[in-house]
Every structure is written in C-alpha cells, then in structure tokens.
Fold:
Amino acid sequence: MSRVKLPPNARWSNELVTCPYCGIASPRAEAWVCGRWIKMLPYPCDCAGYRKNLARVEQRERERRERAEPRLDVPERFERAEVDASSYAETIKTGLGLYLWGGNGNGKTTTAWGVAGILAAEGWSVEVTTLGKIGSSVSDTYSTADTQDALFRKLSRCDLLVLDDLGKEKPSETSGALLYRIVNERYEAQRQMLITSNYSRGKLAARLAEGCAPSTAQAIASRLSEMTAAIEFTGTDRRIA
Ligand SMILES: [Zn+2]
Structure:
C-alpha cells in the first residue's frame, strides 16, 4: 500500500493504475465530491518521479496564491446568477477536470462561469473561451506566428481552461486538430479543463468524427475521459459518471 497521505475527503479505490514515472501499478485514490466518489487525478504514487511532479504542482499552487489581483471578467448575466459552484470548484482543486454536459438551459455555462469566478478570486489564471473563438483567432488574417504562439501558450499554461459549448461548431479537420493540440498540451502539463457540451463524451467523439479523422476524435475523447469527471445536467438532478 502506498505511503502517500490522502486528503480527508479521499480514500484508496480498488482500481490499479500504472504510474508513468515508475511503471508500477498502484491503487488509484478517489474523492468524495458533489455527493459521489470520483476517481482522483493524479492517483497518486510513491516514487521519486511522481513526487517530483507533485512538488512542481505544489510550487505552481504557491505561485498562484502569491499572484496579485485576479483578472477574470465575468459577464454580468453570469455574475448575477445564483448557482452554488463551490463543490465543482473543489473538484477542480483536487486535480480533476470537469465535463458538464446535457441539454440547453440546464445551467452548465452558468456553473462553469461560477467555477471560473471562484478560482480566479483565489488567484488562479482562468481562460474562458470556445473552440470557435480559438479557431477564429488562429485563422485571423492578422494572426502571425507570434500571436499564435502567445495564444497557445495562454491556452496551455493557464491554471484552468474553460471550453464552453464544445461540439457546437461544425466539425472539421482543422478544428479537430486544434482541439487535439489544446487537450493534449493540457494533458501533458497536468492542468485541468472544464468543458461544457450538449454531447456526452462518447457522443462528442462521434460528433467530431463527422468532420475529422475518427482516430483524432477518439484520441480527444480518450484524453478527456482521463482528464475529466463527466457530470450530466438534466435540469433537475446531476449525475456523475
Ligand atoms: Zn510511480
């Protein structure tokens, strides 16, 4: 059994995961969030490689707290909305991303802005955008290699990236490649994403595959499954998968 000390809301699960640092299978931890046990990311492991990475994450957290004023401009209509996004924000803080999905008008976007606002107020750098907006910035006539580098740096390095209404735009090779790049960079940097979509993660893969290579769509869906807990917004209850 691992000697890692878990936070008070977490326990060890029966699921074994292979540590990318030492290659040894160890139990994955799960945390009690929003009324359910959800798998924690990272798992954690006991080895030097894992601990080194954790130290890097903690250093980042310290830098975050030391940072000056938060700078997230929450649109007024979301600022006024009365949703309790605190349990979602707590989930993000455990290192896990969120995938909020379900039909329109069930409060996904409002919740996403609520989480963004809470974390920004605690010093997190948060970007809230859509794949469509990112795509427009990239294809903008005035866009240069420098402005694109700056954009991708921001998207991969911000503490939390919120992608609203994923799957809304007509899927294409370009948007599929763009999404894969963003998701993969954040995956490798172990930084969380909060995604809202009308599609479940499985349906999103099918949706993306309408315009891009099925292998790209699958790779995106698989990364998202590892990075996020999916929560279905049905209007009345919220189910975690
Ligand atoms: Zn390890």
Observations:
- The longest helix spans residues 48-66.
